Amino acid sequence: MSKKLDEKYQKMDEKKQKMLKLRHTAEHVLHTAMQKLYPELKKAMGPATDEGFYFDFDYSQKVAEEDFPAIEKEMSRIIKSGSLMKKVEISVDEARKIFAGNQYKLEWLDDIQVRGEKVSTYQMTLPSGKIIDEDLCSGPHLDSVSEIKAFKLLSVAGAYWHGDEKNKMLTRIYGTAFESQEELDKYLEMQEEAKKRDHRKLGKSMDLFSFSDLVGSGLPLYSPRGAFIRRKLTEYVESVQSAQEYFQVWTPQIAKADLFKTSGHYDKYKGDMFRVVSNYSDEEMFLKPMNCPQHTQIYAAQPRSYRDLPLRLTDFAMLYRDEKPGELSGLGRVRSFSQDDCHIFCREDQVDHEIDTALQMTKEIMKTFGFKYKYRLSTRDMEHLEKYLGDPAIWEKTEKWAETIMERNNIEYVQSPGDAAFYAPKMDLVATDALGREWQLSTLQIDYVMPERFNLTYTDQMGQEKHPVMLHRAILGSAERLMMILIEHYGGNFPVWLSPTQVTILPVSEKTIEYSEKILRELKEKGIRVELNSDADSLGKKIRNAEASKMPYMLIIGEKEAESNQVSVRARGQKDLGAMSVADFVSKITKEDDEKLSI
């Protein structure tokens, strides 16, 4: 197990630690079975994950999902053997002899030697003592493979070694394991539902966004419907913010390296930033990966008094990060994105009020989307304090302060040592979607480092200069990532307020086209997003098409409705609401829109 994974393991509760051991052991069973069935393959790596495990290998022939039954059969045989998992520490030279001919293992050994770490392997041994597999690994694992009660191979894909497209493409097999068949069955059922809700699939079928090889990987293009949803999300946040006197700014998408050198991002994240080359200047410049350094310069542009604080700046400008091609995934991991960033410059005595206000705003917005959530308090890695900027005493103060804030607001939170930003601890909101998956969205940070590094000041009541405190706050986080989450959370069935088209009018025949067009005009005049389906298709086909396009409401217009000056209302999901007047329908849908009901 890598050091990073070991740190993650130490933060887990007992249940999660046991699951990681189970899945890590299942991965060893997988690669042992693969080595038996395909002796010529070369093992690369195979960690446990939050939901299962995977195994990367190099093999000249194709391994497909059709081969899974044979692989699973061999895995079951190994599990029934009752083989034990034994950790053995050896020298680098000895390990090189064992794994000679496997360039992937030898590369790991080079890294281990550079880090000065011990080399450990795990041996899988039969009860008789015979070793049937040995692999570089530091664990943790179950004592015996027989403790694996339920497993399943899920999919196969290509994966670049180390996620770098410059390296060789390997084959990756994904699987999962649980303590019981019941848990596995429940997980598989949820996975099937997740496939139906996959935002990449729905994004294409609903014409929300796309990607182009000519534009570049990780750079999403939003169609009108997708752009509408994205804009609606940011407008919603802006409406909540502006009511609390947050002021929107707009900042350039490039900046000189000097800005990021001052902030500290240059040394910490230069490898993840896009360089910008000028035809006329030798200045080193970068595409902006975050907003906070530029916001410090808006603050610094004017002299500030204690009376001017707090100054709350919000920004939806585009940001860019140089993600590895192998790690890009739909809207979940992109190279261009925006955040609902806010930076609050305030006096120390204003911090509590500002954070409490931000927490209440966040609570309101999470309720709108129907998310359950908890907070994660991300603090320093006490064994590697060199990773953080600023006075250790200030860090201790802000970490304890964050705990007090969580407790004062009766917020459930978990500790996450080692996950702080390099300049401040973080209060991160982790939301749970309709499928029970967790996503980190909002963040709050109390930052003393940036104001000092940029020498930001204000004049206090005594005429003395002081540094303000800088609060970093985002509620939605990345609009791109939130769109991914919401598409899957709702399964494409967006509530009325977020739906690009809220109503489709379905005339039964040509005889009711004229009345349908009248309804169309009336609804548009009321600000309702509506379309008219005047195709010559049957009513049944029109309804099926409307359901497939996730339309919130259908107005079915027959001769009876035209004669009575009414509409027959059908809600998404085959819910017949009966006939009602146009005025009553307008009142109903307007209320849902205004109240942002999540139905």
Automatic annotation (TrEMBL):
Gene Ontology terms: biological process: threonyl-tRNA aminoacylation
**Subcellular localization, per the record?**
Cytoplasm
Listed cofactors:
Zn(2+)
Q: What class of enzyme is it?
A: ligase
Q: State which Enzyme Commission number(s) the record gives.
A: 6.1.1.3
Q: Reaction catalysed by this chain?
A: tRNA(Thr) + L-threonine + ATP = L-threonyl-tRNA(Thr) + AMP + diphosphate + H(+)
Query: Is Acetylation one of the keywords UniProt gives this record?
Result: no
Pfam families linked? HGTP_anticodon (PF03129), tRNA-synt_2b (PF00587), tRNA_SAD (PF07973)
Write out the entry's keywords from A to Z.
Aminoacyl-tRNA synthetase, ATP-binding, Cytoplasm, Ligase, Metal-binding, Nucleotide-binding, Protein biosynthesis, RNA-binding, tRNA-binding, Zinc
Matching entries from InterPro entries are given as: aa-tRNA-synt_IIb (IPR002314), aa-tRNA-synth_II (IPR006195), aa-tRNA-synth_II/BPL/LPL (IPR045864), Anticodon-bd (IPR004154), Anticodon-bd_dom_sf (IPR036621), Thr-tRNA-ligase_IIa (IPR002320), Thr/Ala-tRNA-synth_IIc_edit (IPR018163), ThrRS_anticodon (IPR047246)
Where Zn(2+) is bound, by residue? C292, H343, H472
Q: Which GO terms describe its cellular component?
A: cytoplasm
Asked whether the UniProt record includes Metal-binding among its keywords, one would answer yes
Describe the location of the Aminoacyl-transfer RNA synthetases class-II family profile domain by residue ranges. Answer: 227-495
What does the cofactor section's free text say about binding? Binds 1 zinc ion per subunit.
Per its record, what are the GO molecular function terms?
A: ATP binding; metal ion binding; threonine-tRNA ligase activity; tRNA binding
The record's SUPFAM superfamilies line, in alphabetical order, gives: Class II aaRS ABD-related (SSF52954), Class II aaRS and biotin synthetases (SSF55681), ThrRS/AlaRS common domain (SSF55186)
Summarize subunit and interaction data from the UniProt record for this chain: Homodimer.
Name the family the entry cites. Belongs to the class-II aminoacyl-tRNA synthetase family.
What HAMAP family has UniProt attached to this entry?
Thr_tRNA_synth
Protein name, please? Answer: Threonine--tRNA ligase
Q: Which organism is it from?
A: Candidatus Collierbacteria bacterium GW2011_GWC2_43_12
Lineage per the UniProt record: Bacteria, Candidatus Collieribacteriota
